[in-house]
Amino acid sequence: MHWYGQGYFVKFAIKRIEPTKERPHGLRYSFTLHAPEGERLMGLDNAHTVALASQYAKRQVEADHWHRDETDRGRPYAITDAATLIGDFFGEVERILTERGVPLDAVREGTIEERTKPWPSTGLSAIASCATR
């Protein structure tokens, strides 16, 4: 996890799995940005499939999708590679935090088990560190 100013934070979860039709790349992942209270503001994940924009369209086979804001139920995301996925995620994090006037420097890094408020700004830059389990 990475905490930003004012209590905003990002979480990463990645697990290697057997490839399936829904997850052909063999990864189950979730990258999310949260408000200080814990509400998800945006996320990229493959927890479930999503319907296309038209109510008559079939659901996509692949589960990769993103939630652009806290009310978005998900829209398809065409994953190309891990670097692009992480770059797209942090591009959206930057857009949202900038809109809210939150500095883009991470103020603390930790694990999902640590549910405490962030330390004061230390000038650390936000760097995604992803590991498979």
What is the secondary structure topology, with strand pairs?
Blueprint: E1 2-4, E2 9-16, E3 27-34, E4 40-45, E5 65-67, E6 75-76, H1 82-99, E7 106-109
Antiparallel strand pairs: 1-2, 1-7, 2-3, 3-4, 4-5, 5-6
Strand order within the widest beta sheet: 6-5-4-3-2-1-7
What is the number of beta strands?
Answer: 7
Major beta sheet summary: 7 strands, antiparallel
The ordered string of helix (H) and strand (E) elements is: EEEEEEHE
So what's the overall shape? globular
DSSP helix fraction: 10-25%
Number of helices: 1
* Proportion in β-strands: 25-35%
What is the typical, i.e. mean, pLDDT? 75
Cα distance spanning the termini: 16 Å
Tally of separate domains: 1
Describe what this molecule looks like in 3D.
The protein is α+β, with helices and mostly antiparallel strands and 133 residues long. It has one domain. Helices cover 14% and strands 26% of the residues. It has one helix at 82-99; strands spanning 2-4, 9-16, 27-34, 40-45, 65-67, 75-76, 106-109. A seven-stranded antiparallel β-sheet has the order 6-5-4-3-2-1-7, covered by helices on one side. The protein is globular, with a radius of gyration of 15 Å. Pfam families: TumE.
